């Protein structure tokens, strides 16, 4: 998955916003809360060429995913059950989309009912 594909997919989810922060990372939010991040590495750090995708996951998914090759607890966010894909082939694109959709849902469900209605996550 490329960064453009990542951004396009996150944009397709209900009520999302995007900011670029933390050294040009693409940070995706729902209701002002982060659910997924894509960082580029390579130009100034050739030893880490490529992109890194991080996302929130359930407790069970966190436990399972962090046992997989190429997936680590996300730096600074692991305590909140976030993972980071360290290699481009750590997960198939379809699986990445499924986990990002779940991350979006996990975060959106934690928003107030009023905010969920405002962003269109739940019907009025």
UniProtKB/TrEMBL annotation:
InterPro entries, per database record: YjbR, YjbR-like_sf, YjbR/MT2646/Rv2570-like
Q: Would the keyword Ligase be found if you checked this record's keyword annotation?
A: no
| One protein family per Pfam | YjbR
Q: Does the keyword DNA-binding apply?
A: yes
Task: Give the UniProt keywords, A-Z.
Answer: DNA-binding
Q: Which GO terms describe its molecular function?
A: DNA binding
| SUPFAM superfamilies given in the database record | YjbR-like (SSF142906)
Q: What is this protein called?
A: Predicted DNA-binding protein, MmcQ/YjbR family
């Amino acid at each position: 998955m490329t960064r453009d594909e990542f951004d396009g997919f996150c944009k397709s989810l209900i009520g999302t916003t995007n900011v670029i922060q933390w050294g040009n990372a693409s940070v995706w939010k729902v209701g002002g809360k982060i659910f997924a991040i894509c960082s580029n590495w390579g130009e100034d750090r050739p030893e880490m060429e490529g992109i890194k995708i991080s996302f929130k996951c359930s407790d069970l998914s966190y436990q399972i995913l962090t046992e997989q090759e190429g997936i680590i607890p996300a730096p600074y966010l692991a305590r909140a059950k976030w993972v980071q894909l360290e290699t481009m082939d750590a997960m198939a694109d379809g699986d990445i989309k499924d986990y990002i959709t779940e991350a979006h849902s996990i975060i959106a469900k934690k928003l107030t009912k009023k905010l969920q209605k405002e962003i269109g996550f739940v019907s009025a």
